[in-house]
Amino acid sequence: MLSELLQLDIYRFFLIFARIGAAMLLLPGISGPLVTVRVRLLLGLAISLVLMPALAPHLPAMPTNPAGLFKALACEAMVGFFLGSVISFVMSTLNIAGTIIGFMTGLTNAFSFDPIAEQQSALLTGFLTNIGLLAVFSTDLHHLMFRAVAESYGLFRPGDTLPLGDFAETLAHLLTQTFRLGLQFAAPLVVFGLVFYTGLGLLSRLVPQLQVFFVGMPVQVLIGMMMMAASLGTVIALFLRQFEDTLLPFLPPG
């Protein structure tokens, strides 16, 4: 009897950990390379252990064959990857905006490390994503990430058939919304870039002897940085609202 109880608890624990651990692989600020694998593992195990008393009675019974066990774990991991992907897509809004702004200000060739994309990216992209990540943690919106993962058991019950079509539709819609918002965040710089490059082209035609790009590059960088600094507060505020609005549907009302 004791052996069966231990096996049942271990099964339930790893069933919870499959979803939590998969989400931890993609959650911003936690999945970055600056956070060691040991810390992510311990955090996932700790959260699974805390959730186990509340979730264990609602978990399905252990399958009678290894195939059923692997299927259950794979389904839970897929739900975790879906939730982590949703949050990652929201964070990529600033990545898109930073890339566009980098092109418009002429700073595309200045590279820095981006903890969200986990690679070298344009300087302004890394700056915006770092500011956005700092804003999420300083306003305690990172609690919504953990709550969304914990409350997901009410939406996607273990053992039920996964709504893969809804998963794909949600991610596709979120990807479209992410690109649209990223372009809107960078809209003032896009307008400036179009006007500035048009003026440089006309100036080059009127004064062919003038090195227009040599003269215009400092002006482009200066004006672009001033415009970005003026709109940075609004961009981060809108990003935080988008972050919250995206995660609220995964939480219970009230």
Task: Summarize the structure in words.
The chain is mainly alpha-helical and 254 residues long. The protein has one domain. Helices cover 75% and strands 3% of the residues. It has helices spanning 2-24, 37-55, 66-105, 123-138, 142-155, 164-185, 187-206, 212-247; strands at residues 111-114, 119-122. Strands 1-2 form a two-stranded antiparallel sheet. Strand 1 and strand 2 form a beta hairpin. Helix 3 crosses helix 7 (187-206), helix 3 (66-105) packs antiparallel against helix 8 (212-247) and helix 7 packs antiparallel against helix 8 (212-247). The longest helix is centred in the middle third of the chain and has 40 residues, at 66-105. The chain is elongated and about 80 Å long. The two termini are 41 Å apart. The model has no long low-confidence stretch (mean pLDDT 82).
